[in-house]
Amino acid sequence: MIIGDYHTHTTYCDGVNTPEEMLKAAIEKGLKYYGFSSHSYLKYDDSWTIGKDKQEDYIKEILDLKEKYKDKITVLLGCEYDLLSENDLSKFDYVIGSCHSIIKDGHYLSVDHSEKTFVENVEKYYGGDYYAFVKDYYELLSTAADRKDITFIGHFDLISKYNLGYKYFDEDDERYDRPMCHAIDRLARSGKPFELNVKATFGISKDGMPSTAKWLDVLSELNGRIIINSDAHSTVRISADFEKAQEFASQNGFYSTLFLTENGFEENSFYSLDTEYHLL
Ligand SMILES: [Zn+2]
Ligand SMILES: [Zn+2]
Q1: Are 191 and 224 in contact (CB under 8 A)?
Q2: What is the torsion angle, in degrees rounded to the nearest 10, for the CA atoms of residue 138, residue 78, residue 72 and residue 272?
């Protein structure tokens, strides 16, 4: 059963549909909860984030929609907060803590903008040492553990976006493992759930990213918790492939996902009574 989707974008940042179009689609798909999570403003690049002076408009529009559709769906007002942002987060129901860039020697280096930029940055600022970039990425992401205003962690392994087939670094090498495990440990201790991001996990590899399988496995050993989200930038992607994500999570140590209500997280078992079982 799919209950909610909390990582979604609109025309306020880099999405293609308006908030109302997204919400209507979520209602049609039968969701009980829907969360809006525009990208927080970033001073060094606002081409894909909410505009500098648009946050109040965004908050007002989402709260108006929440009221307008309250008999059909519960709307939560959220934000995908980049760890290099400086937004006021006090008005949000929940905050996704994500890392899209890191700072190196005063330069903002994108992790996921394009493969070309990724490679150029590692060459120029790390002398081609991908493991040093990986380490800095996981170190920055792990600081989310100390942020009380962050509700859960977004696309934990974004650093592996262009690394399918271990194209640039070996994810079984301890220079990858050590910083990854350290970040998992620190974040899991803080009690924050990790997002299983459908777009990041299946967008490039239809079978799911090996990097995601890896952290799921480590997190499950630590009794960590996950929440499945689409990262939809258009109506068609809302809650798409959630069953596939559940299957993937269950193959890597998880039996349930969380969903977020106005009163906090609740658990949704993959094996609830309305699940269809296929016995082999
Ligand atoms: Zn993101
Ligand atoms: Zn996103």
Answers
A1: no
A2: 20
Q: Residue 215 forms beta bridges with which residues?
A: none
Q: Which residues, at least 6 apart from 165, have a Cβ–Cβ distance to it below 8 Å? A: none
Q: What share of the chain is helix, strand, coil (3-state, %, to 5)?
A: 35, 20, 45
Torsion angle of the four alpha carbons 10, 12, 15, 21, in this order, in degrees rounded to the nearest 10: 30
Q: Which ligand is nearest to the Cα of residue 232, counting in written order?
A: 2
How far does residue 242's CA lie from ligand 2's centre (Å)?
16
Domain ranges for the chain, please list them: 4-269
Coil, helix or strand at residue 186: helix
pLDDT for 278 equals 52
Residue 250's pLDDT is 96
Farthest-apart Cα atoms in the chain, separation:
57
Residues written for the chain? 280
Residue with tokens 């909410």: 50
Determine the Cα–Cα distance for residues 28 and 45; give it in Å rounded to an integer: 34
Ligand 1 mean position to 247 CA, how many Å?
23
pLDDT at 46: 87
- pLDDT below 50 — which residues of the chain? 279-280
| Alpha carbon distances (Å) from 175 to 43, 95, 170, 187, 223 | 32, 30, 9, 19, 24
Torsion 58-5-227-198 (CA) sign = negative
Q: What is the distance in A from the centroid of ligand 1 to the CA of 12?
A: 14
Look at the pTM and tell me if it is higher than 0.70: yes
In CATH, the architecture of 4-269 is: Alpha-Beta Barrel (3.20)
